[in-house]
Amino acid sequence: PEKPHYFWQTVMTAPEQELLCIFGTGDFGRSLGQRLLQTGYRVVYGSRRPHSCGPLPQGAQVMSHEAAAQSAGVIFLCVHRENYDFLETLVTQLKGKVLVDVSNNLKKNVYPEANAEYLQRLIPGAHVVKAFNTLSAWSLQNGPSDASRQVYLCGNSAEAKQQVVETATKLGFNVLDRGTLSAARELEDFPLQLFPEWRLPLRLAFGLTAFFFFYLLIRDVVYTYVEQDKDISFRIMVSLANKVFPIVSLIMLSLCYLPGVVAAFLQLYRGTKYKRFPDWLDRWMLCRKQLGLLALGFASLHVLYTLIIPIRYYVRFRIAESTISKIKENQTSVFDTTMAWRVDSYYAMGILGFGLYLLLGISSLPSVSNALSWREFSFIQSKLGYLTLFFCTFHTYLYGWDKFLRPSYYKWYTPPGYMLCLVVPSVVMALKLVILLPCVDRSLTRIRRGWERTDPEGDSKKSLLT
Amino acid sequence: PEKPHYFWQTVMTAPEQELLCIFGTGDFGRSLGQRLLQTGYRVVYGSRRPHSCGPLPQGAQVMSHEAAAQSAGVIFLCVHRENYDFLETLVTQLKGKVLVDVSNNLKKNVYPEANAEYLQRLIPGAHVVKAFNTLSAWSLQNGPSDASRQVYLCGNSAEAKQQVVETATKLGFNVLDRGTLSAARELEDFPLQLFPEWRLPLRLAFGLTAFFFFYLLIRDVVYTYVEQDKDISFRIMVSLANKVFPIVSLIMLSLCYLPGVVAAFLQLYRGTKYKRFPDWLDRWMLCRKQLGLLALGFASLHVLYTLIIPIRYYVRFRIAESTISKIKENQTSVFDTTMAWRVDSYYAMGILGFGLYLLLGISSLPSVSNALSWREFSFIQSKLGYLTLFFCTFHTYLYGWDKFLRPSYYKWYTPPGYMLCLVVPSVVMALKLVILLPCVDRSLTRIRRGWERTDPEGDSKKSLLT
Amino acid sequence: PEKPHYFWQTVMTAPEQELLCIFGTGDFGRSLGQRLLQTGYRVVYGSRRPHSCGPLPQGAQVMSHEAAAQSAGVIFLCVHRENYDFLETLVTQLKGKVLVDVSNNLKKNVYPEANAEYLQRLIPGAHVVKAFNTLSAWSLQNGPSDASRQVYLCGNSAEAKQQVVETATKLGFNVLDRGTLSAARELEDFPLQLFPEWRLPLRLAFGLTAFFFFYLLIRDVVYTYVEQDKDISFRIMVSLANKVFPIVSLIMLSLCYLPGVVAAFLQLYRGTKYKRFPDWLDRWMLCRKQLGLLALGFASLHVLYTLIIPIRYYVRFRIAESTISKIKENQTSVFDTTMAWRVDSYYAMGILGFGLYLLLGISSLPSVSNALSWREFSFIQSKLGYLTLFFCTFHTYLYGWDKFLRPSYYKWYTPPGYMLCLVVPSVVMALKLVILLPCVDRSLTRIRRGWERTDPEGDSKKSLLT
């Protein structure tokens, strides 16, 4: 369906075809040239050896660097940073031209300055614009695709940027101006990043999962094997997983709220909000969203694992066995109303908690959180977040019920997993309750509005962030 | 990982450090100053008492208002509106300067004009730009975070706005230009809003939930207690909730579609689309999306409550009892094919309805609906929406089946809850069918394309919106 | 809540009210005029018969085209393309004016050039801007609503576009500049599109669903009826659907990954990445996202259909029957550990596969994929995608278990549905394994970095895309 469109474009824009220059006949240069030609531009390549530079997109011209640079106003530099030095011989020809740096590095922090900044220093007379470097090779050759719809650019000259904006828009991309050339480093680091802010939460999640898996493996499977000589290893796949997932989920959810509480106490203790938090607390606070989303993932798995319980072979077998044995032994079982209340409340708390959990997750979607005012966002993440934590913790307490007191549940003197996982959320909620006390709350609010406790004058002055 | 980046920025941009001025040494002023200093700007504070204005971020200068204003081209005004009058003495110094108004009010509609408009009137020679007021204090001090990624700005001077855009971009924010200073009121109201368009639907949802909860509590629990002297109050947690949620969900879903139908009949009756709808209908139509999303929330809870049925203690107990009693009484039960058809159809309708419900919800996400053409959006929301309503209504009718006719279900002469909840959707679907009749549809289409019934010429002229 | 805002705007902006001109008094012209008047603009209509042009929004003036054109700097052309020719008489009055073309056509590709381009050719002296044509009539009259929040515009004059941007922003819309007037055709086609990229995947999904529905209907229902004279048609609603949905889902998921594998082998065979793929492969690759999302939809239905199994009448009846018959025949059933392992693994694979499936779906949301670097996006879609495919395929193999070998499962010499659906995913995974072999992987990586196999020099040159 796109085809006829391109056809018309080529035909209609014939009289106004603009000429663009590309330095570099490598993969990036060829892909870009191909796409520019398709969109109706004329393209000239600048090459060291114009007559033996390998195959180029049909319709493109090849010239020496000098001739190519003079023929066009905009030059795309598709060359590795290591080879920028040849440009020094072209200082005259590049004067006043728009020089688009599309380069990326293979690693972060190899050079002291960004490629584009280095380029600008090399050719001060040119208007360097950093752009197109965040796109995948595929989308450069074929047009915008999923994660490559946006061209980020930066540069010191507004006019130069405008020219690049127009070309990128014509190629079908959305353009986001990131300001002056000092943002180039950020743009050059972007394609290299692989979920940097997810690493810590992911490691934590894996660590907790592994710990509780082996803890429960020993308490459940190994214990039964050793003490009762029964092999229940088949329970690993579902029963054990369905203990590990909710435990990890609840701990990680409470770890989302712990740093906020710690920060509040630190501010109360210091009597100011302008003193910087220790680094570990800063980093912890910055990954709360990721912690919460991982916790939601584990909670979702817990929900699915719970819902398939009645269709498991093991469960069906046991229910049939229990019915049969009841009949054979002619038992009369009495309906236990307390049990019914407890089990139903347990499920209701779990469902309501999971519902709110999902709401928190949805409000974390970029397009949703962007549409919220921060008052709305903090209402959801803080008020509803604590309600979620309360529901989920209460759900776990209901699961435990009176098992906390029965010694038989402490196999090999170890507490069951769900008891361990209740520690952090209980502490968080207790500390939060302290903060909500009117007198504490008043002090904290004052501090957060900028008030500072100034016991000795000089000390307070020093406390300001440097 | 961000640290080295800031480090380089500070080092690299050293020679071109720009000087910005901040009026006001309160919380907002200090937080902003701290962030500006971190990003590589030089900052000078203007203060009434430059020598006793309390602690300020290290690296910032303090001067009198006059001196500070003269030293910089851009001045951030971090002062409450009540104290703007001191600026009148600075009219000369502020002439031609960019004056960034970051103020917010504590309440809406306290003043007849927006703070920024008032400021512009006070200092007509300055270029007032409204900006940064929608950010949270945290993100102002620490950089963009979830709901504070976007800086909205407005102002009458394009050049002044451009300068603020550059600073905001350098601080890491995305900037959205909202036009001239007449948009300032909207920007100032934004941080105060707490889900304004959700209030009506939320109240409705709470009202319906409360009504049906007590209605069913009386019909189910109280009735059984009074008439049969049995305590089944444990059913409140799951059984009762799982009746209330689907009922409220279906009613709210049909209330999404009712205003559209009412509007169509109103247009048919009036013979024009240019006459404004009554206020209540306008307000109702504007909250259809929120009604639908709440309905989806209730439907999701209904799904979860339904899926845990087989693992409830009460259900397992009753199934075992029934099997045991069958054996003891040596009953031979016959498989009822009609029952199998009915129950399976009931579930299938529910699942398909819920699937479409989810689709409607997903297409309401801002980023998804922005990517759709309105033809696509209205196809989903209207065509698939009515299909959803049909599936869900049919699901409820299948639940009722033949109970509609049995008097034993009318306890204390009240109809069961699901019968009550079928009223609105049935009416909506009947009215929609009328609208789909060819003759009615034709008239409506003509009206919606701009045609007007002009019985008496003058009357029609009057009908135009004023 | 919006009311007071408009009130103030009207009052405050009174002295600076700008005058805009609208040509055309049809539906679009009236709706636009009404909205402009509400926002505080003055509006003058240009009409052929200024004294008998029907009812217009109160407050608007009507003049002849000539007079109206001269009075304003911006003219909105709300006229069908067929009637543009009257403008030729106004060439003098329109010189230097901004002419906003809001027109749409009823069909695509009717005219050789876009309306706006035709208009520019007709009135070369005017600055034509294409805008507002993608909005729904409702949102034009009432302000931004769900799928009509964005005004796309294009035009050759930056100043003319800026004027239209300001008006659109004042009306409350977000503006997206799509470049020069050559983008007009795309903008004019946008409102006509109804999920073009979903058509092929939807047709495929319907085809597969229909095929497997009838295939399984014959194998399950008809076979049982013919061979055993039993009517099990009630199984259509849930049991049959729950076989068709997972089958279609798995096939469509594997069809997402097949084109990538085919493309890799094609590149290996051709020894270059610069030769264009055949058209069918291109089209296939462009609809992978839609294939995947449909597959996710089917998988979600499969999950819901599976989870309601234990509350079906048919299942409860059968379980009770089996318990009763066990007791009557005094069977002693032995717990089968292999069976427990197998069933639990089957469910665990399914849940983990579905969890990853959901993750893929979430990362396809526009706002999420825009926030990812393409390295992150391709990690999710490729690495996690293949893991999803592996889990789901393994889940299906576990479902089959040893049934592959038992002839009794080949009713009427046809294999069960799940065997058929395993063909494509197994092939895709086998081919992927070949590609992952070190030697193959090395060649492919080289080719994807731009290397070309150049057996005969001339041949390779020809191979470049034309």
TrEMBL record, chains A, B, C:
One of its GO terms (cellular component) is endosome membrane. Residues 21-105 form the Pyrroline-5-carboxylate reductase catalytic N-terminal domain. It is found in: Endosome membrane. It is a multi-pass membrane protein. Residues 247-381 form the Ferric oxidoreductase domain. It catalyses: 2 Fe(2+) + NADP(+) + H(+) = 2 Fe(3+) + NADPH; 2 Cu(+) + NADP(+) + H(+) = 2 Cu(2+) + NADPH. The keyword DNA-binding does not apply. Its main location: membrane. GO terms for biological process: copper ion import; iron ion transport. Its cofactor is FAD; heme b. GO terms for molecular function: cupric reductase (NADH) activity; ferric-chelate reductase (NADPH) activity; metal ion binding. The chain crosses the membrane at residues 200-218, 244-269, 290-315, 346-372, 384-401, 417-440. It holds the Pfam family Ferric_reduct. Keywords: Copper, Endosome, FAD, Flavoprotein, Ion transport, Iron, Iron transport, Membrane, Metal-binding, Oxidoreductase, Transmembrane, Transmembrane helix, Transport. Belongs to the STEAP family. This is STEAP family member 4. It comes from Dicentrarchus labrax (European seabass).
